Here is the input.
Amino acid sequence: MNTDNMSFAGEESYRLESVKKQFSSVFGNTADLAVVSVDVGHYKGLLCYLTTMTNTDFIIEHVLKELTLSEHKEPVSMDETFHLLETVHYAALKHETLVDLDKVMDKIVLGNAAIFIDGFPKVLVLEVRTLNSRSIDEPTTQNVVRGPKEGFTESADTNMSLIRRRFNNVKLRFEKFELGYMTHTAVYMTYLDGEVEEHILKQVREKLNGSQIDSLFDSGRIEEMLHSKGKGIQLFPTVYSGERPDAICSCLIDKRIAIIVDGSPFVLVVPALFTDFFKSPEDEYQWVVIGTFSRVLRYFAFILSLIVPALYIAVTSYHQELVPTILLTSIAAQREGIPFPASIEILLMEITFEILREAGTRMPRLVGPTISIVGALVLGEAAVQAGVVSNINVIVVSLTAISGFVAPIYTFGSKVRFFRFGMIILASIIGLYGLVLGCAFLMVQITRIESFGVPYLSLFSRWDKRRVT
Here is the structure.
């Protein structure tokens, strides 16, 4: 960048014409750049900002009106003028003083306004970012009957406010990082000072500071980066994601670290344990017996969604002696005339259901649920009537699909869908032996997983070695 009449170390003063040329060179002919000539007290100056990142009314009311220094009739020096701007006129606004023009331009891109004074080496940068964001609505993936209805939005400031409102505690900390060398996305590490293990804080800082990604638009982009590389294969997520402030605050109390990404309504939490993905915030808002029963029911549904199709294939294809005679006769009667073996039949129905699920997700909101329901009913009924699949097959696949939706965290349920196909293939090859082998492999690998040094199968999220010993 050409720096005529300017020094990034502050030895020389900024000249307004040179500043205009530099902005024109760097920003080109972008329509949202405002470079306004203003009077700063008794001196000539420039006000630079992006109209798409600020509110024009706010700029006029709180920035331009204060530049005139109207209450100071007598001329004052440039140093005194700059000092008055900092300490009196813009004291209520978050601001900083810079001398490096590159850094000033980076701040303007983030939604700040810069004030230049002709012949002065310093630049006053004001934080005036006022963007329209989605209002606080009910969460879309973690619904509860009883409990708060607030959900995170795409604004990091709003999300931090939702957390801060629930913590009247001076220990709450927000550490800021910038990720993505193209987007410079703000990322905030949130934790309770003195509660989180230092080695976990250090690991998270190193992962965030060591990020080499080019762009960041959602927290899912850094979720894989935060996955702990433990001894076992990462079969299940080791990073919890949620859009409920009460759930994230509960994790903070449990000595966790939350990661807030500007532009994403999903907040990440580390370390994450296996039990976290079966908890619902509603469990804490009702009778403990009911909450415990609901959580046990989720574990049972997880097991059903994982093994029911494989178990059906194993017992009907290889181990018919395990099935009661009356039930076996009923199944045989339903399968009479079906052209495919049980394994192919199950795979066809599972793939069909996955296609319907994906189509329902991508369709417009108004027609998606209708098409999904009608498609499932019509296809299922037509397939049975045509003799392609049996009624018992439809029951097995439906029970499996419903059980897969019980997990409160959607990303965890998607992992189960992947493993279910593996179980089906193993059961199709060697029957119950394959199913047992698949379950044993999963258990061995899960017991070897660690999330930032914490065993993945820890029974209690509030781990404390002193308490255990």
Remarks:
- The longest strand covers residues 33-40.
- The radius of gyration is 30 Å.
- Residues 13 and 158 are 39 Å apart (CA to CA).
